[in-house]
Every structure is written in C-alpha cells, then in structure tokens.
Amino acid sequence: MAGYVFRRLLGLIPVLLFVSFVTFGMVRLAPGDPVTIVLGGRKVDPATADALRVQFGLVGDPFSQYVAWITRAVQGDLGESYRLRQDVVGLIGDRLPITLELIALSMVIAVGIAIPLGIIQARKRDSLIDYVGSLFALVGLSIPVYFAAMLGVLIFAVWLKWLPAFGSGDDIFDRFRHLLLPAIALALGTIALTSRMTRSAMLEALSTDYIEAARAKGLPERTILVKHAFRNALIPVLTVTSLQVGFLLVGSVLVETTMGLGGIGSLITDAIQNRDYPVIQAAVLFLTVAFTIINLITDLLYAVIDPRIRY
Amino acid sequence: MTAMRAGRGTAGDALLSVHALEVEFRTSAGPVRAVNGISFDIAAGETIGLVGESGSGKSVTSRAIMGLLPPKTSTILGSVTLNGDELVGLPEKTYRKIRGERVAMVFQDPLTALNPLYKAGEQVAEALRFHFGVSRSEASARTRDLFADVGLPDPDGVVEKYPHELSGGMRQRVLIAMALACEPQLLIADEPTTALDVTIQAQILELLRDLVRDRGMALLLITHDLGVVRELCERAIVLYAGRIAEVAPVESLFAAPYHPYTAGLAASNPQIASRRARLPQIPGGPPNPASVPPGCPFSPRCPAALDRCREEVPPLVASADGRLAACHRTAELAAGTLSLDWEVPS
Amino acid sequence: MSAEELPRVTFTRPGRVGRLASSPLARNRASIIGLLILVPLLVMVFFPFLLAGDPNAQNLSQSLQPPSPEHILGTDKLGRDVWARIVYGARPTLLGAFVVVLISGVIGIPLGLLAGYRGGKTEAGIMRVLDALLAFPALLLAILVVATFGRGLGTVVVALGVIYVPAMARLVRSVTLVHARLAYVDAGRALGYSDRRIMLRHILPNLVAAVVVQSTIDLAYAILDIAALSFLGLGQQPPDPDWGSMLADARSYLLQAPWPALSAGFAIMLAVISVNLVGDGLRAQLDPRERER
C-alpha cells in the first residue's frame, strides 16, 4: 500500500511539470508579439515592455526560460498583475479561502443529497421518487450554473427574502448564509451526475451473485444494502465525484461573479474582463494544480476502498 | 401425488417436501412459466441430484426453495415445506432466519459469489455473528475451524485473504464453509463444480460427499453434468422444460432409463455411454421457456414421439418398481421393446 | 465503456423514428419530447429571419420593457427585442456546439482507431497525449487558450473541439480493442488480408452506435461550455447576440428587469434538456443493456 502511494506521488511530478510548461509556454505560441497579449492591449514604453518580456520568459529559448520561470514560481513568485500592481500570488492567497469554502460546502451539499437519493432510487426502482429524482437530475445537468445562481437570487433573495443576494458575509454563520445559494447552484450539476451514478452503480451491485449469496446467508436487507452493495457501488461513484471537483472548480469561476463573492473565480472573471493576462495564467495554473492533486487523492481513496487496486 | 418417495431407502417424514411447485415470471415479453408443476421429497441425510439443461427450471426451483426469487416479478404457486413448515408466502423476516440456519446454498461461481471487497474470513464470520449473535473473536475461531473442515491448507492465512488472492478451488471451499457455518439441515449446491478446473472438481465433490455424510445433512445437487450425479447422488430427478421427466435411483436411471430424454442424455454422455467411436446427439435444443410447445415438451426432439405425445402432456406416473416417469411410452421403454434411434453426427 | 458487444445498427431516418414511436419504453416518449423542442431550435438556427426581426435594432426609449404584444419577451437595456436576440442567438450556441462535436470526432475517431488497432507504442503515445490534455479541467484550459489566441466564437469552438478529443478518442479506442480482439480470436475470421476488411465491417457499425451516443453527451456539454465562455466574455463578441453574453449583460439589471436573463437562461436550459432527452432515447435504443433499466 505504501509503495502504491509513493509511486502515485512520484507520478504526480511529470504531470505538474507538463501542466506548468503548457501554461507557461502557451503565450509564446500566440500570433504576433506575445508581449501584447501579456499587456492586454495597453501601450507602454519599450523599457517596460522588455522587462515584461524577461519576466514572462519570452526571450531566448523556451526551456531555459521555463526553468527560470518555474524556479521563481516554486518560490512563490508568479509575476505581477500589471493592472492591479500586486503580486499575483498575493491576490490568489487573499481570495483562496472563499473559493475553498464555496467548493467544500458545495461538495458536502452535493454528496449529502445525491448519494442517499441514488440509493433510495435504486431501492425503490420505478417508483414515483425514482421518476422525480431522475427528472431533477435531468434539470440539474442541463442548467448553466450561473443561471441557477441567478434564479436562486430571484427566488430566494428577492422574492422570499430568505437568503442574501450578494457578497460573502462576515462571521462564520453569516458567511454560511451568503455561500449557501451559490453552493447549491454549483452543486446542482454534481447532484445530478452523482445521483444517477449512485443509482446505476447500486442497481448493478444489487444484481450480483455475492448479493444473492448474502441474502442466502439470511442477512438483513439493510446490512446488504449498506455494507455490501454500497461499498461496491462507491467505486464508480467516487470516479464521478472526483471528476466533479474539476467541474466545481470551474463552476466557481462562473458563479462567483454572479453573486459578488471575492474568490479566485471572480479573480479570473475580472482578469478576463480587464485583459489581465498574468493573472489569468497564474490562476489557471493554480487551479489546475489543485485539480491534479485532488484527482490523486481520489485515486488513493480508491485503493483504500478496493483492495484489488493496491498492487 | 403422494407416491413421490420412489427409491428411498429410509422411511420417515421428509425433510423437504416440494408439492406442485409452479413459478411464473413477468417479463417484457409476457408471462414465462419457468417451473410447471414439480413435486419431490428429500429425506434427512439424502443426496438428490436435480438434473437438467439450461432452461429446465432447476436453478429457479432452488431459488424458490430459498425464497430468493424477485418478489415483484415472480409468482410462486404450490407448496414447499421444510420439516413440515410451509415456506411459500413466508414474510421476508422469517425467511431470513431459515436461510443459512436450516437451508443453505453453495453458489456456482466462487469468484462472483464472494464480495471482492471483504476478506474471506469476514464473510463467513458475518453469517455466524448475525445468526448466533456470537462475538467477533468467537466467530473468528469458528471460521478458522470451518476452514480447516473444508480442507483449506492454511486456515488462518485464508481468513485474512481477499477473494481475488485465492485460487478457484480455495474460493469454492470458502463458499462451502460459508454455507455450512450455521449448520443447516439441507444444503443446496447449484452447479458447485461447473466453474472449476477438472482436477479441482473431483476434490470438491469428494469434500461435499464427506461433509454431508459427517454432518448428516441432506444435499440437493443441481447440475447438468451426469457424471457428477453418478458420483455423488443416491437419487436423481431429471427436469425438462419446467417439468419432471423422470425420478429414479441413480444406478437404474442410467442403466435403464424410463424417459427418452434421460436415454438421450445417457447415450450422448462420454462418461456414461458405452464405448463407441461416435456419440449420438439429441437433435435441436431445449425449448425457450417463453414458448413451450403443446403436449409433451420433449416431443419435438424425441425419436419415439407419437401424435399423442404432441397433443397430451404425459402425467408423472409411478411404475411397479417405484420409479417415476412422465412419458406415454414408458412401459415400452421399461420392457425394452422400444429402441431409440438417436442421430449420430457424421 | 465495458467490453460488451454493442449491437449492429443501421441508420436510416424513417426507421429510427418508426422504432422510437412504437417502442414501449417510456424513454422514447421523453426523447420525442426532446425532438419536439429541438425542431423549433433548429428553425432558429437555420432560418432565424422566419421567426423574428432585427436583433440589433436599438431603441433606447424602449429600454427594459416587460413582455408585451409587440415584444413578446420584452426588451433589453438598449431597447433591443429580446425574442429576436434569442432567436438569432441560437445559431452561435447550437451550431457552434455542433461544430465542436464535429471537430472532436474528426480528430478523435481516427486517433482512437489508430490506438486501438495498432496497439503497442502507437497506442501508448496517443494515450499519453490524451491523458496530458485531460490533466486540465476543460473550461480552464479553454479560458487560457482563448485568452491567449484571441477572443471570438471561432477560437472558442476550435479550442473546445480539441479539448473534447480525448473523450471521443478513448471511446473509439475501447470499442476498437474489443472487436479487434474478437476478430483475432475467432479462427474462422483471421484470414490474411481480409482481416482488415472484416474488422472494418464489424468495428464500424458498432463504432457508429458508440460515437452517436458520445456525440449527444458531448453536444450537451458543448452547448453549456460555449454559453459559459460567452458569459465570461470570451465568445461571441458584441453586438451580435449570443445566449451566454445575453445572460452576462442581463445580470446587471437582474433585479429590475429579469426577463432578458430568464429568456436567455431558459433558452440554454431547454436546448440542453432536449439534447439530453434525445440522447437518452438513443442510448436506450442502441445499448441493449440499457433496456433493463
């Protein structure tokens, strides 16, 4: 088991190198002078432009530039936002907590609703709740996150006045109130996919021989459902869930602006609007690295659940 | 209908009594009758073989006895009594107590019948804890003993292993141990050796024979393999298309079959047929349970079929020697005046 | 994708509709609903002028009007008719999504075939590249690409097309693997040069089924992704209408005049729902295992 973990951690390094190389190097592939993209169309004097060129590794051969860049990056220097005149790393750091809270809350809500829903749907197949659940999943899959957020604001903030429409709140409880709406909007797609997957994985698990053998032993239905069927169903569910984290990360980019949350997502959105390339580059890199690490953690979780994978 | 005790050596009340059992499934293609009026008894300590091809209803019968048929899509008619207690229609909760403790099942494919995520020992101990409420350590100890009883060379090691770490034969022994754990009176073995290598098959059969004898259990062996039946069983029930074709003690069954189907099976089986250069075949295949022909279900394939056979379903009738057969021409077969010409493939 | 055989399918339009209508599955009732929604959407894409007037005509005196007989979905901030903008906004979103799936197929299917058929180093190399693409969350990569290479619907569509390649290629590869192996195992089939021909005859029909199913899934995601990128300002540039950018604009006056936002949002939703319904129906027809569900 320890060997497996170590090997997976080792395998992480080339992926991270690759991702950072692509993020770093993409701007060099752009047509025209890459500096213009970095500058976002602003005009500067040649000296500043040259300095930026060096900072972004746009002069000289790609590899040595990349090495220099990655060295700086690992030390916490991802460049400076030209527009905001602030270290990008600092910007990300400030906004990280809100995004983390949003994604965590979203994941908890999603899993908390989707998995029980999927299990109930499998248990009571073709019943009303199965049908309604599937309908709900269809809508959840089809609605754009930012629209769901807007609808949520219209219904719960404006019409019913239960929740705030904007901002991220002060203390913990207030923060929770403010994040609830965007977290739910974000979670809808995940709930849809996860409940579907849970349902089908449970149905498949329940039709296996070992479940029949467990019944033949005379075990009670609840034990069979939870201890035997669900643990096997967990494997495909975990796949879907780990993919979903990527969607949540991405979704936060879309939802945060809609609801005035000051997280990394809105950092990217603002940067896109302001053509602040350094920020876009750095934030995309940061989120992708986070995505990769989360995928690794999920893979390791598989090994905990399924003993067949450990070798 | 009470003459179902043909060929039994010991007298006394039956352990298991199946009477006029019918099982119908509701499918998207309409109702399908998988079992169409089967009756038989098993006495304590008896070993019976339930023989048939796929679609004959043998597996469905075993599931019906265990109460493992899907409740929403299946209908059971008739009666199944265990020690006089009626099983058909029992509420699920009561059935759970019976499963494992009074009747247990050994499944066909040991790889898929064991949960891949739990250790072998745990899956056996689970049954012990649930049925007898014993502590974990007690359950572990009993599991180890069971594993030794079923002939596993390293019982302690196997307890800690996962199913995928064991060989096919070892897994089947684990399954048998699991079935024996709660000391049932009746053991149902559904094709216990089909998924195993030939050399292992012999070992498992021997194991079953010894265990059943030592513990005084009755064994209902479900199989399509006539060789296995001859090895292990005292009596055999031959099923065809959801009905009983013939019931007889094993030796006389193959030496002198009273039903053309049995005769065909025996003639085409390399272990039982006389030594010939080419073995005959029964032409065609068993009918689809969704569309069984009228009259005797075997008539389309039977070389001795008469018009009467195609119109009238032959009843299950006892002969003078106590054997049962469902064929209009049993008398001729028994007397030896009917010769069956099976096709020999060229 | 598991290693089970996919059925052979022939694709003649009337046949499919006929089978859909006569199949007892409830799924197919749902996919008919999907098709019913899809038809007006297709009209919007190809013949928008039949349904509405000029989407760019401004009339500031009529800004933010609620729905009325003249403007059935009201007007936006610049007094433009929302209904017209929805109708004309269908094309970039839906046609764009279709092109995305097309690109991913044109690139992905040959790659998957090559990987599955050749095996060995070719396969390993191709899979390596695909895995590299998959290291990025799709939308983030799209954002980076479009921010680098220039905004606009064209870049968006090409970027997404490439990003969707791994899904299609992997699917094609696994179908190819299954059938290539089957062909070799069956002794009667492995006969010299007829190998390749036989494999094409057996693989291709099964491929069609798998590709169609994957395409509907991808189409739904493509619609959402294009709309999302437009929402961020990276897609269709103003003043041309596009559902995503309409939503972005409408956000600022959401509380005063929700109609433009609701129209654009529901338009996207209905389009995706209809694609999903049709996709479910197709999947139910094409995958015999699904019939058990």
Entry keywords:
heterotrimer, B: eight-stranded mixed beta sheet, 12 helices, disordered N terminus, C: 293 residues, mainly alpha, 70% helix
Oligomeric state of the chains present here: heterotrimer
Order of helices and strands of chain B: EEEHEEHEHHHHEHEHEEHHHEEH
Number of distinct helices of chain B? 12
Helix content of chain B: 25-40%
How many β-strand runs of chain A? 2
Note the beta-strand portion of chain B.
15-25%
| Helix and strand sequence of chain A | HHHHEEHHHHHHHH
> How many distinct helices of chain A?
12
The gross shape of chain B turns out to be globular
Beta strand count of chain B: 12
Explained architecture:
The complex is a heterotrimer of chains A (311), B (346) and C (293). Chain A is mainly alpha-helical and 311 residues long. Chain A contains twelve helices and two strands, in the order H-H-H-H-E-E-H-H-H-H-H-H-H-H. In chain A, helix 1 (2-29) runs antiparallel to helix 12 (277-305) and helix 5 (88-123) packs antiparallel against helix 6 (128-142). The longest helix of chain A is centred in the C-terminal third of the chain and has 38 residues, at 221-258. By secondary structure, chain B is of the alpha/beta class. Helices cover 33% and strands 21% of the residues of chain B. Chain B contains twelve helices and twelve strands. In chain B, strands 6-7-8-3-9-10-12-11 form an eight-stranded mixed sheet, sandwiched between helices. In chain B, strands 2-1-4-5 form a four-stranded antiparallel sheet, covered by helices on one side. In chain B, strand 4 (74-82) and strand 5 (85-86) form a beta hairpin. In chain B, helix 3 (120-132) packs parallel to helix 6. Chain C has 293 residues and is mainly alpha-helical. Chain C is elongated, with a radius of gyration of 22 Å. The model of chain C is unreliable at 1-24 (pLDDT under 50). The chains are: A mainly alpha (311), B alpha/beta (346), C mainly alpha (293). Chains in contact: A-B, A-C. Chains A and C meet through helix 1, helix 6, helix 7, helix 10 and helix 11 of A and helix 6, helix 9, helix 10 and helix 11 of C.
